[in-house]
Design goal:
about 160 residues, alpha+beta, two-stranded antiparallel ribbon, 6 helices, 7 strands
């Protein structure tokens, strides 16, 4: 937790952050670390800090993280960066291009960067989804890939 911004840690509460880290560790992911997920929340837009998801939403991310872990396994490489995971509604409103009803606000979505190109990641995600590992969205952007577990398949 030492690499997290001190201001954000104070706002969130170290106990809550440690509790979320313990939950994420329990998922036993191989290609993404709890710290990578937590760091995606410790960001600002102007003077507004994003937050961890409310505890009631923690389980929502499990399926998406497991799907992302499977994609990483297919690519045979770890996730380089979790660009975005949960976004508080106020934070989401400040994200350029974010949808007003973004799946990030419900803790079902990840924006990920790998060493592989976003199109390679999207192809791997399509493969993993075709094998029944998840139902959700796969979005290819110029510098990251979006994966969510909304419950029905969409691509962009």
């Amino acid at each position: 937790l030492n690499s997290l911004p001190k201001t954000w840690l104070k706002l969130e509460g170290e106990q809550k952050v440690q509790s979320y880290a313990k939950y994420l560790t329990g998922l036993r992911l191989k290609y993404v670390t709890p710290l990578q997920v937590i760091k995606s929340h410790a960001k600002t837009k102007g003077s507004l800090w994003n937050t961890l998801p409310p505890k009631s939403m923690w389980r929502a991310m499990a399926g998406t993280l497991m799907a992302a872990d499977r994609v990483a396994a297919v690519l045979e490489q770890p996730i380089n960066d979790v660009v975005s995971a949960y976004r508080s509604p106020a934070y989401n409103r400040r994200c350029p291009g974010a949808k007003p009803r973004s799946w990030h606000m419900q803790n079902f979505a990840l924006d990920l960067q790998f060493k592989a190109s976003p199109s390679s990641v999207a192809c791997a995600a399509l493969y993993v989804r075709s094998k029944g590992a998840f139902q959700g969205g796969i979005g290819r952007y110029s510098d990251f890939t979006h994966i969510d577990t909304r419950g029905h398949n969409v691509d962009w």
